[in-house]
Amino acid sequence: MTTPYSELTHRQVWLEQEPEEIRIHYVEAQPPAGTQKKGTILLIHGFPETSYQFRHVIPPLSSAGYRVIAPDYRGAGYSSRPTTGYTKKVLATDLHTLLTEKLGVKDPVHVVGHDIGGMVAHAYAHLFPSSCASLIWGECPLPGTTVYDTYKHHPALWHFSFHSVPNLPELLTTGHERQYLKHFYDRLAQNPAAYTEADLDFYESQYSAPGAMRAGFNVYRAFEEDKVDCLAWLREKGKVRVRAMILSGEGTFEALGSEEAAREVDEDVVVGKVEGSGHWIAEENPGGFVREVLGFIEK
Q: Cα separation of 157 and 254, whole Å?
């Protein structure tokens, strides 16, 4: 039986207390006693989700022998919501500090990011390649690639432009957070039934908290700065040399161009698919997600 999210180990640490509080909440699971320890997996969520999106996959990944750490990046979930610092460079640096300075992780980790988390994961690999054992990312048009420039104003990605408008998204979604979040869960899923009423209650409680939607929108408002960062890294460092997999749902439209985008920024990349899933791969088909992740990192 899967361990409920509330029964997993929850902790939080302070990365900074001044001038603004940077407090990161994370969920952690250790391998069972007597299990051979194989390393650490860092799971990075997307929008509009939190570490809760990995509730079904944390227990089987830890049971396979991995220490699993799933943070809420700054601005999301139980973490603090500072007014600045939403570039993927900053979010990745937060998580690297969390692991290496606060949690004592010294060996390279397997970095797995989905949606916005995929952008953060890729920034992590660019910035801290020696801290990465492997990289799995996907379900996002990465700023800095031609796919991003091609699709950022596509009608299917209308929310990229909407979320970038100052103040208006906050005004229009206040009091309607549940309906707004559910639009994305329903529209992008092949299996919308993966989201129960209890799941919607939880996500609503997280994103209706003061400042939560603004922090979520700020992640999108940083995309053009993220593009500048990515292009600079490519010029200065070249492509990411960490062994990588681009992971998408079998039925997602966001798989279009994902392999091409990955080959623009990754030297060594393979393609993975989660069968029977749309965008929300860890929730629609948790077993398929776990098989793809373990199949790649254990090669």
A: 10
- Containing 117, the helix (H) or strand (E) segment is helix 116-127
Give 196's strand partners: none
Mapping DSSP to helix (H, G, I), strand (E, B) and coil, where does residue 273 land?
strand
Q: How far apart are CA 272 and CA 262, in angstroms?
A: 12
pLDDT, tens digit, for every residue of 27-65? 999 999 998 999 999 999 999 999 999 999 999 999 999
d(CA 217, CA 280): 19
Q: What is the pLDDT of residues 236-279, one digit of tens each?
A: 999 999 999 999 999 987 666 788 889 999 999 999 999 999 99
| CB count in 10 Å sphere of residue 28 | 18
CA 190/CA 288 separation, integer angstroms = 14
- Judge residue 223's burial from the number of C-beta atoms within 10 Å of its C-beta, 0-12 exposed, 13-18 middle, 19 or more buried: buried
Strand partners, 246: 137, 271
- Its sign, for the CA torsion 187, 188, 193, 197, is negative
Taking phi first (over 0 means left), then psi (-120 to 50 degrees means alpha), and beta for anything else, what does residue 32 get? beta
What six digits make up the tokens of 258? 């994902």
Strands 269-274 and 132-138: unpaired
Nearest CA-CA partner of 286 in 82, 33, 59, 130 = 59
Residue 14 CB: number of other CB atoms within 10 A? 11
SS3 56: coil
